[in-house]
Design a protein that fits this description.
The complex is a heterodimer.
Chain A (H helix, E strand, L loop, with lengths): L1 E5 L5 H8 L1 H6 L3 E5 L2 H10 L5 E6 L7 H11 L6 E6 L4 H9 L4 E4 L4 H12 L1
Parallel strand pairs in A: 1-2, 1-3, 3-4, 4-5
Helix pairs in contact in A: 3-4
Chain B lengths: L27 H105 L2 H36 L8 E3 L1 H19 L6 E5 L7 E3 L1 H25 L7 E9 L2 E8 L6 H4 L19 H12 L3 E7 L3 E9 L4
Classes of the chains: A alpha/beta, B alpha+beta.
């Protein structure tokens, strides 16, 4: 099962690849990366058949994570993929909006990778 | 004169000579006296008058002095108020930045924390591989460690730069000297700060941003925090403009702010372009005047652009221009001489 990580910070890729190196090596998890909401949608359009879990930052230039979430849940893929939102601002407003738009989970930066690992394992199993 | 006595004989006439003296008040010395008296009176009058005039003069002088003093005091007060205004304008824009800065620092800090944690795990793994004698795996881990260390260093520097620019931004710019600086880097830094700052303040705000930097531009001699403030000001305005348009335009409108640099006529040019509503010609003429603002009361001070204008023209010997097309967008350009000492 593939996990798509959407974040405008480029080093997020290295971080995830190292944090999950054991899972990647064993083939339990496979990661793809997009640096913007637009890029994520493009990726999704080409990968329709694959079951995907999306992990998206909210605060990005251009299309925001919330806009991406809305598009994914309303217009793309049936059944819609699991979407987890990550934000630097752990505020109620963002949380409520993410939940209203159908987010499956909501994480606050800095991400606790132990917690995230558990969440991903449960979501993927 | 003759007399006739009893004898009847007229006496021999006796003649007397008279000198009829003028009355004393018509004598020469009287005249002299008059003259002296007259002169004294004139002198006295003149003296008194001149004394009076002098007194008046002194009073006037005193008054003038007092007025001058009062004026000087008012000038001082005005200067202080102006300085306070400039400082509060700086602080206002800093306030706008704070959330953005927090976000911008948080991100590199997260990376530093995460990569340090990973490295610790990698070192433990490395120990195990050493025990197993698996040199190939050790080498691989060592390579990862090295690359992670570089990332930690990179993000540390990034946070460092952000804190430095924040401090510079709030510091008073008196007594600062121009130094050669990388305009592209400065613009990029402030682009991120402005974007995140606005975003943190208004969750509904969103805009695309692109950069078109000419990497060949030479270092520009400038007071970094001053030019940074100008860039920040232009960016805040640009983001404000696209956000205003987004409120009324349909879903097809995609807000976009572009920052770019290039060289033209021996000058380095930095442009900030937005695709907002544009500025009407009548406002375009007043745009660099102090206190001119079209933003609602309490939102804009009307000082941003006039301060920017002064910074670019007076402090750096450059020029600040604006072109705008109503409904299509606005472009501000900062021209800075390459050699300005």
């Amino acid at each position: 099962m593939k996990i798509l990580v959407v974040d405008d910070e480029l080093d997020v890729r290295t971080l995830f690849e190292q944090r999950f190196r054991k899972e990647i090596r064993s083939g339990d998890m496979e990661f793809a990366f997009a640096h913007s909401g637009e890029e994520a949608l493009q990726y999704l359009n080409h990968q329709k058949q694959e079951a995907i879990l999306i992990l998206s930052d909210i605060n990005m230039p251009g299309m925001s994570g919330l806009q991406l979430l809305e598009r994914i849940k309303q217009k793309y893929h049936k059944p819609p993929p699991i979407v987890m939102m990550i934000t630097a601002y752990g505020d109620i407003e963002n949380y409520n909006q993410a939940m209203k738009l159908g987010a499956d989970d909501f994480l606050t930066k800095p991400v606790d990778f132990t917690v995230l690992k558990e969440k991903l394992k449960t979501a993927l199993s | 004169m003759i007399t006739r006595g009893q004898s009847g004989i007229w006496s021999q006439p006796a003649s007397f000579d008279f000198i009829i003296l003028p009355p004393w008040w018509q004598t020469w010395w009287a005249y002299l006296l008059y003259a002296i008296a007259a002169a004294s009176i004139i002198y006295l009058v003149a003296r008194i008058r001149s004394q009076m005039l002098e007194k008046e003069n002194r009073m006037l002088e005193k008054k003038v002095q007092m007025r001058t003093q009062a004026l000087r005091q008012k000038m001082e007060e005005l200067k202080t108020t102006q300085e306070q205004l400039i400082q509060s304008e700086k602080m206002a824009s800093l306030g706008e930045l704070t959330a953005g800065i927090a976000h911008e620092i948080q991100n590199p800090l997260n990376f530093i924390n995460n990569f340090s944690k990973i490295n610790k795990e990698l070192l433990e793994e490395m120990d195990e591989e050493i025990d197993r004698g698996n040199l190939k795996a050790v080498r691989e881990i060592a390579a990862d460690l090295k690359s992670n260390e570089e990332k930690i260093y990179h993000h540390g520097r990034r946070a460092d730069g952000i804190v430095k620019s924040m401090l510079q931004h709030s510091r008073s710019s008196i007594n600062l000297t121009k130094e050669p600086a990388d305009l592209n880097k400065l613009a990029d830094e402030y682009l991120r700060l402005a974007y995140h700052g606005l975003r943190a303040k208004d969750k509904s705000f969103n805009s695309g941003m692109t950069t078109a930097f000419d990497e060949t531009i030479p270092p520009v001699n400038m007071i970094q925090q001053d030019i940074g403030r100008v860039i920040l000001n232009l960016l805040t305005n640009a983001f404000y403009a696209v956000n205003e348009k987004a409120k009324t335009a349909g879903p097809d409108f995609s807000p976009m702010v572009t920052v770019g640099t290039n060289i033209a006529d021996g000058q380095v040019v930095l442009t900030v372009r937005d695709n907002g509503n544009g500025i009407p010609q009548t406002n375009l003429n007043k745009i660099f005047q102090p206190f001119f603002t079209t933003k609602p009361t309490g939102v804009g001070t009307g000082l941003g652009l006039s301060m920017s204008y002064d910074i670019v023209t007076k402090v750096h010997g450059g020029s600040l221009t604006v072109t705008s097309e109503e409904g299509k967008g606005t472009q501000f350009s900062i021209y800075l001489p390459i050699k300005n000492n």
